[in-house]
Amino acid sequence: MQDTFILAKNDLDRVLDELNQHGFSLLDHLHPQALMNQLVQECTTHLQDFREAAIQNGVVSNIRSDHILWIDDALPIAQKHLQLLERLSHEINRAFYTGIQNIEAHFACYRAGEFYALHRDNPQQKNNRVISTVYYLHPEWKEHWGGQLRLQDKNGQWHVIHPEPNRLVLFQSDLLHEVLLSHQQRLSITAWLRTDDKIWAS
Ligand code: OGA
Ligand code: MN
Fold it and tell me: What are the required cofactors (predicted)?
């Protein structure tokens, strides 16, 4: 578990400071290349199991067109990513007394022409999501492929974040954001750091 968490103290301090000041932060080159390659592998070998994200409990929405696969123990490489997020959660709890105790996560695949319209992951504090994280794991990304994450920070300022491979974005789950139309297959792990008393799913 420890071997996958090699976040330098100055990176951690910067992330905590940016979360505090702006409500979001980026961490580039998150995992060693070998682990990222394994994540790409695990994700792509399961693509046929992905389901339409727009259909939840039989209800269809038209705000998103991506496909997802919820992460459980049957996906051991993805669990390594969750272990890193778990450690990050402990640091976030230490800094902000957030009480995060649980992580909920899925792989997501946006094919060419897919998007996720403006939304919040925790509208009106309706669920227990505190921080949303998105990790991009396609092997490469070119600017003209689109698929940017557009996010309004806690001060009302908008930011356009490119889905660079091996980049982790963290943001408050109550912030407004969207995924712009992607022109290429765009792969990611979305994970929410939550306050439910499940005490770590992994
Ligand atoms: C989400 C989401 C952003 C992204 O899954 O809720 O907003 O960049 N994802 O994939
Ligand atoms: Mn979202």
Answer: L-ascorbate
Give the residues surrounding ligand 1 with Cβ less than 6 Å away.
108, 116, 121, 134, 149, 177, 179, 188, 190
Q: Please indicate, yes or no, whether the overall pTM of this predicted structure exceeds 0.85.
A: yes
Task: Output the CA 122–ligand 2 centroid distance in Å.
Answer: 9
Calculate mean pLDDT across residues 30-58.
Answer: 94
CB 31 within 8 A of CB 42: no
Q: Of 68, 102, 27, which is closest to residue 189 (Cα–Cα)?
A: 68
Q: Which residues, 6 or more positions from 182, have their beta carbon under 8 angstroms from its beta carbon?
A: 110, 111, 112, 113, 114, 115, 145, 146, 147
Q: Can you list the domains of the chain with their CATH numbers?
A: 9-194 (2.60.120.620)
Neighbours of 36 (CB within 10 A): 20
Q: Is 59 left (phi over 0), alpha (psi -120 to 50) or beta?
A: beta
Q: What is the mean pLDDT of residues 137-165?
A: 98
